[in-house]
Amino acid sequence: MVVIPQLFVEENKLDIKVVKKGKTTNALYFTNRQGLPLAMSEPTSGNHNDLFDIEIHFKEITNTLEQAQINIDGLFLNADAGFDSIKLRNQCESKGIIANFAKNKRNNSSNEDHYFDDKLYHERYSIERTNSWMDSYRSLLNRFTQLQQAG
Question: In the chain, what are the domains?
Fold first, then answer.
């Protein structure tokens, strides 16, 4: 059976400048193969790792897709090694999502044999392009903040 990738995930980190100093906000989002965002988690302030509150964010994103009547059963999820965890793999499996996560070398699960398609993993350029696009709004926010301070 050939599986066509449908969703890609990546953590988006935006440095948001506030009057006194910068703060970081993290949000997870799923995109389609072209990199268009389909669903996004609630932004979380603070500098967190990829798996911070992953259960909550994953449920939030999958609920959004289901509410939009997007069938998630059988979807393909590409994610970098930062998302390689038993918890997230189990959540994907419970929703019928095929997890294609790069192996995290820091995990001690070297004996476990998880599905991984290297060729499809390299299709992640679309989410990286989306990350760059989202980060480009940071410069607009910085300019707006500087204009407010000057005015």
Answer: 7-139 (3.30.420)
**Among residues 29, 32, 28, which one has the least CA distance to residue 4?**
32
Would you say 18 and 9 are in contact if contact means Cβ atoms under 8 Å apart?
no
> Length of the chain, please?
151
pLDDT, tens digit (0-9, with 9 covering 90-100), for 43-69: 887 777 888 899 999 999 999 999 999
Q: Cα separation of 69 and 76, whole Å? A: 17
pTM equals 0.70
Q: Which residues pair with 39 in a beta bridge?
A: 30
Q: Which SS3 state, helix, strand or coil, does residue 150 take?
A: helix
Q: Which two tokens stand for residue 46?
A: 């603070």
